[in-house]
Amino acid sequence: MGRQRPGTPTLEEVAALAGVGRGTVSRVVNNAAGVRDSTRRAVRQAITELGYVPNLAARSLAGHRADAVALVMTEPDWRLFGEPFFTEVVHAVGDALTDTPVQLLLTLVRTDTERQRFVEYARGGRVDGVLLMSVHAEDALPDMLAKAGLPTVMLGRRSGDETITYVDADNTAGARGAVAHLLDTGRTTIGAVSGPLDMYVAQCRLRGYREALEGAGVTPASSLVVEGSDFTEQSGRRAMADLISRRPELDAVFAASDTLAAGALDALRAAGRRVPRDVAVIGFDDVHPARPTDPPLTTVRQPLGEIGRTMVRLLLEEMEDSPAGRRSVVLPTELVVRDSA
């Protein structure tokens, strides 16, 4: 269970550097009494210098397993925790842990200081593994956790070359199918409201939009694409207003999330456009927005329940053992047709 990864510092190496015995290092790691303050400082300095991570199996056998995992969102705005997508993920992960002794801790990591502080907290034995969501392309936290030897599973990925274990939906295929549906129903000028393009999920959904158009012999126009600053309704509202001013003749829009689509519906209503008669709208995720949309939203369903269960399964497996290399699971999506398209 949780054996020390090859190449990582050992308890014996920490003891040698600190000039103490192996048992003393173990007592310091487990915050046991009976160690002089000067010795405790020397051991902790050696742990820091070597980058030592306590063996989870030994701690478990000694009764020091944390029996907790952290679900971390790396967004600068804590209010995004209240967005429907994130609440659905939290529920899915929590449900998947119901029949285990593992507690779920929720945290928000926004700055480099908070990243370092969280890694130190996690490697100090407070959690046995980490689930990450909403990770942007240049975020170093997944690599920091991997370097610390902490079992980690991501929802989504930072790029097509992700090195950390992840679970994702087939975002490109889902977006491609949504836009193909718009084309099949006779729409000819189709706009896109993307998410922030420093996130791979937004890149994939925009790629699917373009692939569907190209497959139908339509050249994607840059004037028909607006990048949202995030995945909120406010962002969708602003982006849709921009699209209407750029291309007033558009007759459909693909939004990269349901919350973006809800904002787009507001902007279309404010501009006097009827949905779907004048402009058809499709979202992505199939989560319930803070308020029902009018008309009900056609969307691409990603299986959030299965995503949450799969993330938990992979993390528990990594906590019990150390699989060779990162693993990945990509789950299919489904177009759900309602009144908006």
From TrEMBL:
The record's listing under InterPro entries reads: HTH_LacI, LacI/GalR-like_sensor, Lambda_DNA-bd_dom_sf, Peripla_BP_I
Q: Which terms are listed as keywords in the entry?
A: DNA-binding, Transcription, Transcription regulation
According to the entry, every stretch annotated as the HTH lacI-type domain falls at: 9-63
SMART domains from the UniProt entry: HTH_LACI
One Pfam family name from the record?
LacI
Listed name of the protein: LacI family transcriptional regulator
